[in-house]
Amino acid sequence: VGDVTALVLYLGAVLAIQLLVLQPLGRAATTRAVSDVYLDRPAGFATSFGAALRALGALAGAALVQIGLFAGLLGLLVLLVVVAGSSAVAVAVLLAAASVPLIVLFYVRWWVAPQAIVIERVGPLRGLRRSWELTRRSFWRTLWLALLLTLITSIA
Fold first, then answer.
1. In terms of Cα–Cα distance, which of 44, 37, 41, 36 is closest to 118?
2. Are 130 and 116 in contact (CB under 8 A)?
3. Which of 1, 89, 97, 133 shows a CA-CA span of 20 to 30 A to 80?
4. Residue spans of the chain under pLDDT 70
5. DSSP letter assigned to residue 85
6. Which is nearest to 62 in space by CA: 26, 99, 35, 24?
7. Cα(first)–Cα(last) distance of the chain, in Å?
8. Residue (of 53, 38, 67, 64) closest to 118 by Cα position
9. Distance between CA atoms of 73 and 22, rounded to whole angstroms?
10. In sequence order, what DSSP letters do the residues of 105-152 get, joined into one string?
């Protein structure tokens, strides 16, 4: 049991670092570099990652809001099973399946939050709201792009 617990804790820590630090920093730095090239400003590693690092608090805050929302949904489902007992397992499974479109909606609509945070220099909640506005008319295009980029980065 000790080895399994250690493995779960290790994987949880790696996932937390990935979700809260590495992904937002990478996306923010890439966005800054592309923005600099587009605006005919010198683009470089130090400039791009410097901007991303300055926004790290807001980037991590936005990621925490996202994780909190999804964890809260999962917690509600678990609470339902615990309170109602084994008879609620089927209901919880159905609710979980029904919540998948909602999770996908939020994932896609918040996809460009790191970009909004680093380019517009806004906080985490404003970055999430801005992302929601920016993806309003391009849900499907953003979904396919997010899936493709997630697949590519997962392989890498």
1. 36
2. yes
3. 1
4. 1, 156
5. G
6. 24
7. 31
8. 53
9. 24
10. HHHHHTTTHHHHHHHHT--HHHHHHHHHHHTTT-HHHHHHHHHHHHHH
What gap in Å lies between CA 72 and CA 46, rounded to an integer? 37
Phi/psi region, residue 55 (left: phi>0; alpha: psi -120 to 50; beta: rest), is alpha
Report the sign of the C-alpha dihedral through residues 61, 21, 8, 105, in that order.
positive
pLDDT of the residue at 77 = 78
pTM for this predicted structure: 0.76
**What is the pLDDT at residue 1?**
61
- Residue 57 half-sphere exposure, CB side, CA atoms within 13 Å? 4
